[in-house]
Amino acid sequence: MTDDANLSNEPGTHNEFSQDSIYLISYPKIVFLYPTLLVSIAAAIYMTFAGESAHIGGPSEHMAEVMALIFLGVFGLNLTVLAFDFPRTTSLTLFFLGAALFMGAWMILRFNPGIIPPLTNMLKGLRPWANSQMYWLFSSILGLIFICVAIYVRFDYWEVKGNELLHHHGFLSDLERFSAPNLKIDKEISDIFEYILLRSGRLVLHPRNEPRAIVLDNVPFISKKEKQITRMLGALQVQVRTDKN
Fold it and tell me: How many CA atoms lie within 13 A of 90 on its CB side?
């Protein structure tokens, strides 16, 4: 009895690979807009509690303008992430270049405000404002889309289970089966910002005796999923070899 308990606690034994199934879900890119949703909800809450003081001409008008600028900035960055792919080298280069240009422009305008009067006046004239209804409506629309996505992916997902790769799809739970042993896995992180937001990337599966590869884009926590699949398949290969011996 004692020997069995000690054996089950040893690393590399069955308990380490006791997870029966690993689920792989490919999400649409809309999920990367969750920072915009969070900022919109925060702005809606602030504008609701601030009330008339945050209206134009009120004592909290400046803070309302700051919230609007933050919302527009985050929304713009999110749309940029959706529109373009940022490989690692390109992303770092653009980041440092953008930071250097911003710091340089800020220092020039800070110490020499009259050097570019039109630009200075334009920046001072940026005073966006939106009421709580706009933020609540935007949050509701985007939140509803997120709920629809959560429902949709429940009818289209992949499952690595035992020695099979299963594809669940359709409202009637249609099922496709592929052989999992000797499954080749490729992990691709083509966008560093998408990886930062959801630790997501592209997972390419190559089942044995299948002419086409299975490409899953925007898989969250892709590194964790890859390690889990590798461990499961490794344990399966060891078990098969042991049975043969």
Answer: 8
